[in-house]
Amino acid sequence: MRNAIDLPGVGNARELGGYVIGDRAIKKGVLLRTAGLGGAAPEAIKKLQSEYRLQTAVDLRMTGERESIPDPEIPGARNIHLPVIEMTDYSEADPEMIAHFMKNGDRMKLFEMSYEYGMLGPGLYTRFLLNDRGKKAYREFFRILLENDPDKGAVLWHCTDGKDRTGCAAMLILAALGASREMMIADYMLTNEYSSAQIEAARQKTAAYPMPPEKREALLFMCGAVVERYMVNAIDTLKERYGSVEGYLREELDTGSAELEELKNKYLEAAEL
User: Fold this and answer.
1) In this structure, what are the phi and psi dihedrals at residue 202, rounded to the nearest 5 degrees?
2) What is the pLDDT of residue 154?
3) Between 213-222 and 107-116, two packed helices, what is the crossing angle to 10 degrees?
């Protein structure tokens, strides 16, 4: 599949490398995005170490998620935890009850509660991007990107399904490198190809539950799908508040003109004609 990286045991594993932006392209093998690494097979860890020369793995998950399924050690790479959101940030519902449902794998009860309190839907990503914890996490993530030398190896970032917190990070990187709105959304939507089997299984398993279309959309989203209007809403909200995604990078992530130019110099190369 497009932009795929072969990491056995790791879902939604792909890279930003190869996207053409103007007369340049993103360097291959240096900006990797995935789902959780907890199930990574030994050959995947070896590949990250030897082929990609992984420098840093950034874990965007909640502390509880990280403790339940820790990242494996990847020789030569540092592992940095930058939670975009924590249970305590959800004031709409009881964080302990959410944690209980997550721990016991009761996804339908978790879904019903999350949907009832409006915790799913187009506003989800703006919560990630605009809450103080999220801004701090993404700010630190960009510091890592600026510190990294792509000639020495890759940076990888992930959450649980590799689509939401990870997808917002990818959108911000693409914006920083000068990508179009269409490219940012297209990269986000690739999850539906990479996770098609998981999504179809969820569709069949939940078909017996009667619910309106918007609620079913949210259910499939929770089971691994992505919804275009969720990312569209995030991009549009940043444009409304900051003038553009780049405005958000400048004002909230301390990534100004000099830093944006440095990122382009680091991660872009001449496109093949």
Assistant:
1) -65, -40
2) 98
3) 130
Task: Band the pLDDT of 121: cuts 50, 70, 90.
Answer: confident
pLDDT given at position 207: 87
What confidence tens digit (pLDDT) does each residue in 96-116 have? 666 655 565 566 777 887 787
The CA-atom distances, in angstroms, between 95 and each of 22, 32, 89, 194, 196 are: 45, 31, 8, 31, 30
Does position 271 have pLDDT exceeding 60, yes or no? Answer: yes
Phi, psi of 231 (to 5 degrees): -75, -35
CATH number of this structure's domain 14-266: 3.90.190.10
**Res 208: pLDDT:** 85
pLDDT in tens, 128-177: 999 999 999 999 999 999 999 999 999 999 999 999 999 999 999 999 99
* Residue 59 near residue 155, CB atoms below 8 Å: no
3-state secondary structure the chain: CCCECCCCCCCCCEECCCCEECCEEECCCCEEEECCCCCCCHHHHHHHHHCCCCCEEEECCCHHHHHHCCCCCCCCCEEEECCCCCHHHCCCCCHHHHHHHHHCCCHHHHHHHHHHCCCCCCCHHHHHHHCHHHHHHHHHHHHHHHHCCCCCCCEEEECCCCCCHHHHHHHHHHHHCCCCHHHHHHHHHCHHHHCHHHHHHHHHHCCCCCCCHHHHHHHHHHCCCCCHHHHHHHHHHHHHHHCCHHHHHHHHHCCCHHHHHHHHHHHEEECCC
Q: What are the extents of the domains in the chain? A: 14-266
Kindly tell me if the per-residue pLDDT of 193 is higher than 80.
yes
Q: What share of the chain in percent tops pLDDT 90? A: 78
64 beta partners: none
